[in-house]
Amino acid sequence: MSYATEANFDGLVGPTHNYSGLSFGNVASQQNSTHPSNPKAAAKQGLVKMKALADMGFVQGVLAPHERPHIPTLRSLGFIGSDAQVLAQAAQQAPKLLAAVSSASCMWTANAATVSPSADSKDGRVHFTPANLVNKFHRSIEHETTSAVLKATFNNPQYFAHHPTLPSVDHFGDEGAANHTRFCKDYGQQGVEFFVYGMSAFNTAMPRPQHYPARHTLEASQAVARNHGLDPEKTVFAQQHPDVIDAGVFHNDVIAVGNGNVHFYHERAFLKREQMKADILRAWGDEHTPFYFVEVPEVAVSVEDCVQSYLFNSQLLSHKNGEMTLVVPGEVENNARVWAYLNDLVNQTTPIKHVKVFDLKQSMSNGGGPACLRLRVALNEQELAAVNPATLMNDQLFETLNTWIDKHYRDRLIEADLADPNLLTESRQALDELTQILQLGSVYDFQKA
Ligand SMILES: N=C(N)NCCC[C@H](NC(=O)CCC(=O)O)C(=O)O
User: How many domains does the chain have?
Assistant: First the structure.
């Protein structure tokens, strides 16, 4: 059997990273909306995580940020003239709209797409569906460029199938891999694909949150599973508990993470917890390989602590000896209850044996932890060899990107700066250079004009 691995493709933070309070239902985004940001530090924090994982022996890739402020969106909404005039009018007449088209939110690549490995799909290819992110305007404009970047990164139709996004309406609200995980014995073998939704669009009798939006629907997940050619026997759907969405858990990856034979989640994460377990075990099917449900009780760690610390927004990484490392943000270490829980967990009889902490404060202040920043792509040897090699992290790419960030990024940005035409020019120059570094071709609108 050929070797297979799980690669992580992280979003490189773009030059316009800022805090604009754009995400209703995301507590951090709301709380930090008036704070100045530091795009340079944000990009470097992300890059350090990528390099560390590559150094640990994991396959690590980079997904390029998008062109922001996005002038074509402003033009489609009636602003006219030169790019500088479009920017000036938007800043004057609709500053919140300008903030929305300036967000660097594509950094959270867990929301870029849902990915099904070749071992799970009927046609034996790796399938990608870029998420429509329709619930938030600033994110709904990501999928076109996301699709172009994914196609430039996984650029071989023999191995990679790229689907269009689902219809961009609430009924098919799709937040991508933030609400999807996969359990398997080996990355190259057929696994169990686990889809988590916030509500049903068509069955209005099913419960839904009252205060904050459920961004992702059951119908979206079912459509992705069909398009990817998944085996219904190996596919599980579960509803997120509406109460935790109302408590600030806007994606399932804020309250659960899965990998290999481990499902690590909070006891209040799912509406029907026992059914979730029974469904996963039925799909898992193999009585000889143990499956671990690592359920964190409310008395040990509250939902509020989860939202504050992002304990579950962690990366669960498999080592060759079967042990796993949990990659967590610094906020986990700073929360006494959560840190005590984790120190106890690594001594229990589960594969989770190590914890690695990263400072991702810049991203965390917008509600994005280690797991938000990465898109998982399980690949066999042939597929890995077919990935655009310029996007894979190594010592040289790390050096190149560090220098590139130093050259192009500002270390302070407030909302008023988004109107600065120099920021637009700087960003375009940076991205133009980046497409050469990552050998992506022309993926941006400004490169096509
Ligand atoms: N959990 C995962 N997988 N991703 C986190 C995404 C955070 C993102 N925040 C933002 O878009 C805030 C932008 C601002 O307010 O400026 C969001 O809410 O969609």
Answer: 1
